[in-house]
Design goal:
Layout (H helix, E strand, L loop, with lengths): L2 E6 L2 E7 L6 H8 L17 E6 L9 H7 L9 E3 L10 E6 L1 H10 L1 H16 L4
Parallel strand pairs: 1-5
Antiparallel strand pairs: 1-2, 3-4, 3-5
Length: about 130
């Protein structure tokens, strides 16, 4: 079974094993990784934008609709994909970077987690940590 490791510089890694056919957004949800999905995963926004750092060849081919929506995303790279559209079609290991846009959307969609994060950051500042 494929293994997906989600990374973000402000949060620890999230790793999950999923069956082939799973989208990256579904894998993120299973791993409780902070990947946004303002449209609910129907390819109507770019908030599930991620960057594939390892295992790009394990994913389904990008289609025109996904390319059109990626044009709306911030900081798109050659290995960018929409989590709701990129299905894992082969076994192997993937490393997926959650973009700032996706991360912030997730926290806006989950106020309880956002408040907990804000409190952690506040406590870190008070303790003199960057």
């Amino acid at each position: 079974m494929p293994i997906v490791r989600f990374i973000h510089r402000e949060e620890g890694p999230f790793e999950v094993e999923v069956p082939t056919g799973t989208t990256l957004l579904q894998a993120a949800q299973k791993a409780h990784a902070p990947e946004g999905s303002a449209c609910g995963g129907v390819c109507a926004c770019s908030t599930c934008h991620v960057i594939i750092r390892k295992g790009f060849q394990l994913l389904s081919e990008i289609e025109d609709e996904e390319n059109d929506i990626l044009d709306k995303a911030f900081d798109v790279e050659p290995n960018s994909r929409l989590g709701c559209q990129a299905s894992i079609v082969r076994d192997g290991q993937l490393e997926v970077e959650i973009t700032r846009e996706s991360y912030e959307t997730w926290y806006n969609e989950h106020p309880r987690e956002r408040h907990a994060r804000d409190e952690r950051l506040k406590q870190a500042r008070l303790a003199g940590k960057p």
